Structures are given as C-alpha cells and as structure tokens.
Amino acid sequence: MKTVDCAGRSVREINEEIRRLVSSGEPGIRVVNPGARHNLAVAILKDVAITIEGPVGYYAGGMSDGVRLTIQGSAGWGVAECMLSGTVVVDGNAGNGAAASIRGGTVVIRGDTAARAGIAMKGGLLVIGGDTGYMTAFMMQRGRIIVCGNAGPALADSMYEGVVFVGREIEELGNDTVVSDAGPEELAEIGATLARYGLKGPERFRKVVSGRKLWNYDKKELDAWKAAF
Hints:
14% of the residues lie in helices and 25% in strands. It is of the alpha/beta class. It has a domain at 93-228. An 11-stranded mixed β-sheet has the order 1-2-3-4-5-6-7-8-9-11-10, with helices on one face. The longest helix is centred in the first third of the chain and has 13 residues, at 11-23. The relative contact order is 0.09.
C-alpha cells in the first residue's frame, strides 16, 4: 500500500499524487498527516481503497464514483457530498451537510452529525451511529437514512420519497411527515446494515416518510407551504 504524506504540502499537490496512484492501478492508498485539510480525496472515479489517518476538513470524498474511503477521525462540512457510488466511512463525527445530494453508495458516520445531514439525497444510504442535528433529510428525494440516536428539529422537512429510521428521540418533525414503527423486515435489514459496519442500535426504530401533501401545490394546503418555505 502506497503512502501519501500531507505534511508541508498543498491540497492540490496531495490530490494530484492520490490521482496519480489511482491512475497507476494502486489498489490501496494511505494518507497520513491530513491536518484537517479541506477537499481531500475528491472526485475519485475508480474502485480504490483510501484510508486517511486523521481528521479532515470540508468536502472530503465529495463527487466520487466508486471510492472506498475511510477517515480515521472526524470530518468537516459536506463529507461525501454528491457521491455517485462507493463507500465513505467516518470513524468520528461529521459537520453540516454530511452526504448531501448523494445519488448512490453508502456513507457511514460512526459518531454524530451536525445540521442538514442527508439533505437533497437522491439515492444511497446514510448511517449515523449517534445523534443528528436539525433539518436532517430536508428535501430528501430518495434513499434511506438510519439514525441510531436522537434527531434534532425539522426532521425530514419537505421530504419526497426518502425514508428515515430513528432509533431514539425525535425533537421535532418537519413539515409533511408521517411516522410509524419500523416493521420486522425493516428492523432485520437495519440490524444487518449496522452489524456490517460494527454499529449497534436500539431494538426499535421509528420510520419517517413523506405525507405527500407538498408534492403538488394546492391552495388548500397554503398554510403548510408557507410553513415549509
């Protein structure tokens, strides 16, 4: 496994070396001394395993297609944003907008996420081992989110066809949401997913989906539209 040392180097230099190694067919890459730099390992378009040994800043792993990225630390805003496929695993916490607008793949945050996790997701899976902040799943179009801990205010506000499972307390639901208990098959699937990534959640999860009232504008629902926007 080749090693990329970030010490004393610019983000451009680091990413250029990562891409050179990926292009040469290197199956695994270690990135050391990241120093919480922004934009590390972005736009990786091949199936390659990259391990960043330490915390990262904004937008790590974003715009990727096929990468298997592990971050051995916490991540700043926008981790894995706009990912098409692959896997991004963060061993610590993540800042605002984790997995925003992903179209596929899996993003796993072993700790907590801040605000707006999974906003505008168009597919894929986001797993949060701890708590998540306000407006998680805002305008989520498709895909699934599993939250093992608590969810903050405005959960799933204005969501479309996404599904959010929450293991503990929901501080406040967003506009146009419907809540039920997850069924046996759904619980089995959640359990298998968590086990795959070495996580453990509660025995029960609540399922949050769209109430579909905001899918099409209707004057009869004007108050709900005003509240949403």
